[in-house]
Amino acid sequence: MRLVIDTNILISALLKDSSARRILLLPFFEFYIPEFALEEIEKHKFMICKRSGLTETEFSLILSILLDSISIVPRSRVQKLIEQATNLIGQIDEFDIPFVALALAIPNDGIWSEDKHLLKQRKIKIWKTEGLLKML
Q1: How far is CA 125 from CA 42, 100, 120, in A?
Q2: The whole model's pTM is what?
Q3: How far apart are CA 87 and CA 107, in angstroms?
Q4: Could you list the residue range(s) of the whole structural domain that residue 125 is in?
Q5: What is the CATH number of the domain that holds 53?
Q6: Could you read off the pLDDT of 75-88 as tens digits, one per residue?
Q7: Based on the number of CB atoms within 10 Å of its own CB, is 129 exposed (0-12), middle (13-18) or buried (19 or more)?
């Protein structure tokens, strides 16, 4: 299964040893994230460390392990679909635009997110963690 993951999934996996972390480490999934998401993770690094109790070194190690399971898609590959993604989700939540654009740019089975805003569009399947766990 090929899934685009929303930043909230990666943050959840960084905060604690959760279902999200365990799913991200399963070998039979292919995960994709837009390059933009790494900037968002870096921007929230201090908050993630504080809430999780991780040191910056531990944070970097866990992030590195998780990113071994995730393909980072460059901004250039997603850019041409930003307008289409904006039409689908931009009026609802502009922060979801890069994830929708990525889902439009590559073959995939949907977006894995806990963001309810994404459910308001109908073009791309949205997976919740609970749904993935049931499938396993």
Answers
A1: 28, 10, 11
A2: 0.94
A3: 20
A4: 2-135
A5: 3.40.50.1010
A6: 999 999 999 999 99
A7: middle
